[in-house]
Amino acid sequence: MEFKTLTPELSVSAQITAVDLPAIAQAGFRAVVCNRPDGEGGDQPVFDELAQAALALGLQTRYLPAESGKVSDEQGRQFGELLAQLPKPVLAFCRTGMRSTTMWALSQSGTLPLPQIIERSAGAGFDLKGVVRRLVNGGKTPVEVADATHEVVIVGGGAAGIAVAASLLARQPGLDIAVIDPADIHYYQPGWTLVGGGVFDASTTARTMASVLPRGVHWIKSAVAAFEPERNAVILDGCRVVKYKQLVVCPGLKLDWHGVEGLPETLGRNGVTSNYRYDLAPYTWKLVQGLRHGRAVFTQPPMPIKCAGAPQKAMYLSADQWRRAGVLRDVDIQFFNAGAVLFGVADYVPALMQYVRDYGIHLNFNQTLVSIDGPARRAVFCQTLPDGSKSLSTREFDMIHVVPPQKAPDFIRVSPLSDAAGWIDVDAATLRHKHFDNIFALGDAANTANAKTAAAARKQAPVVAYNVLSTRGQAKGEARYDGYGSCPLTVERGKIVLAEFGYGGKLAPSFPSWLIDGTRPSRLAWYLKERILPPLYWQGMLKGREWLAHPEMVG
């Protein structure tokens, strides 16, 4: 935990967790201010978790969130008021510390000389040149003056972004590429299901961003605030400007923990867990091992979500553990799905239904989790009835695995790149933006109708790489994406139903049926998931090796 001092009364830091709070109190801080909105990252605790843990240590807390790169003058004023009110010294944090520093700088405008504001910020490691431009230009950021210019700029350093960068360099070594991402850690998110099932250790799913970035790629460690596509510019946190010739946008999606009333306050305790967060997946396994009798509830929100099979995977692996422990008959397993069917591709449903019957799972369709009371162990669901009316029902639980509602990141939803629903508006085959010819998108934030999985990004990355080079005149023809997505449904420890399909639910198996029949549980598919796919991800997909991912070409 690194505290960066701005004044004797204020320090800033990157994201903290409840584990950090004792050290923060021991360092002499008396108050903590959170400037990061809940749900920005999959490894981020919600503010209410921190507030409750801080209270026990005598630390005061305040929540003043700002979207990345969009700190307002009003928020600067409010930050100044908090500093005046709170006991000192104060620690303020966000994802990296930049938003907190920006708020402080705005709060000091007219109080401290501008050179002192910039000097103290720079001393703490924060470049506020963009904020200076904003202050002296009446709040406007002149995009004509760029802090950096690159041939290809990629927004997002997740699976999709790193894979595109690697595929581009495999085809065009030496190409000037920049990846914009503020995160220090890159996660293999498909592994979190197996963490929650006691198969993987969480640490094996995380590597430093620096270690996975392809050699030669420029890393701009910042968050994106806005897009200026007419000027080929991206505005960063702190109002810095990066210009490009081609832009690839793949920032992932946002987990909306606040979309369920009461959920942020109880995550990680009271039997409430989720494999959709890095630090909570081990808690899932702890709950499963500890449950000997009672009710276990698993939820699935309305689509679209990241990996639509993940809610079921958690359920099947938990049920298998209870069967192995000899307590399955004593556990009432309830699955609440906002949708109307168990799985969207009918060919895989018979195999899944056999496990539903074998495990004694009770299916509840058209029911969405709307609120949760952790201490009382009660969850409220809204059911959509055949006539379109809605009714509420309350269920008690001993443990509940929650999948939160999901949406495009805030800076995407309000951008000129989005469609009416807030997702990036691209052609489903070429992944080129429908209105800006030099912009492409892939991964979870695109509005394509494929399953939002890492397997989909693995197939999309070569398509985008080829089409970017074609736009630059460095390749001929056009690559096309067929909607491929894969969802290895872990139905028990040692067996998987390997769902592979393209647009329209058309089956798209990678292997002959005599080797792996995806419509039936397979031990070989489990071996693929457990032993082959992780190295394929780290050493193949992220290295530009397009095994089983060569794009279809036209022209």
Automatic annotation (TrEMBL):
GO molecular function: transferase activity
Keyword line: Transferase
Any Pfam family the entry gives: BLH_phosphatase
Family annotation (InterPro entries): BLH_phosphatase-like, FAD/NAD-bd_sf, FAD/NAD-binding_dom, Prot-tyrosine_phosphatase-like, Sulphide_quinone_reductase
Keyword Transferase carried by entry: yes
Beta-lactamase hydrolase-like protein phosphatase-like domain ranges (all copies): 3-110
NCBIfam families: TIGR01244 family sulfur transferase (TIGR01244)
PANTHER family in UniProt: SULFIDE:QUINONE OXIDOREDUCTASE, SULFIDE:QUINONE OXIDOREDUCTASE, MITOCHONDRIAL
Name of the molecule in the record: TIGR01244 family sulfur transferase
